[in-house]
Amino acid sequence: MVFRLLDDEIIFPDVALAEPDGLLAVGGNLSLERLVLAYRSGIFPWYSEDDPILWYAPHERCVIYPDRIKVSKSMLALLKKQIFTVTLNQAFEQVIFHCATTPRLGQDGTWITTEMQNAYINLHKNGIAHSIEVWQNEKLVGGLYGIKIGNVFCGESMFSLASNASKTALIFLTKNFGLELIDCQLPNEHLMSLGAEMISMQAYLEVLNH
């Protein structure tokens, strides 16, 4: 059953009631308070430009345990060369813009709408959303952004304009923040090759609420 949310009431239904594809609710808005409640509840927004706001709570979650990330020998060698400079929260708006506009294989458009960008920039200004930037010769060539809830980082998107730049950002995230879990939300071949695995929503919420 898909629930309809009201703009003036910031609540979500139980995540166990989500559809098989994870769709839980529709409507509402992207206010700071609603987004924070969503992430604390294991819920995230995901929709296209012409759709209403759709809220998802997948019954299985794609996650990376920081100590289980797979780093190839070639990637380790690249990191030792220090061809990239990595920073934190220095160019959030640039990162989310690149995540929204960088072409992706097999995708015609983006779910990171202008409305979505503005909402997460607001979260960043309030210390809730964070970005990792990867620079080469003082040019932004990769990065990622997401929401930090306790010791869980809910990754939203990443981009790469240079080979291995987004991997560098992800590895930096796993090594420097004392995280218990990185939430990747939905699986893909790239994430699974880096050591991502699937866990139940119940297991995810136990870590999230720890």
Q: Outline the low-pLDDT stretches.
A: none
The end-to-end distance, rounded to whole angstroms, is 29 Å
The amount of helix comes to 25-40%
**Largest sheet, spatial ordering of strands:** 6-7-8-9-10-5-11
- Which radius of gyration do the C-alpha atoms yield? 17 Å
Structural notes for this entry:
- With 210 residues, this protein is an alpha+beta fold.
- Helices cover 31% and strands 28% of the residues.
- The chain is built from seven helices and eleven strands.
- The chain has a seven-stranded mixed β-sheet with strand order 6-7-8-9-10-5-11, with helices on both faces.
- A hairpin with an 8-residue loop joins strand 3 and strand 4.
- Helix 3 (92-101) runs antiparallel to helix 4 (114-125).
- The radius of gyration is 17 Å and the shape is globular.
Characteristic key phrases:
7-stranded mixed sheet; 7 helices; 11 strands; 28% strand; globular
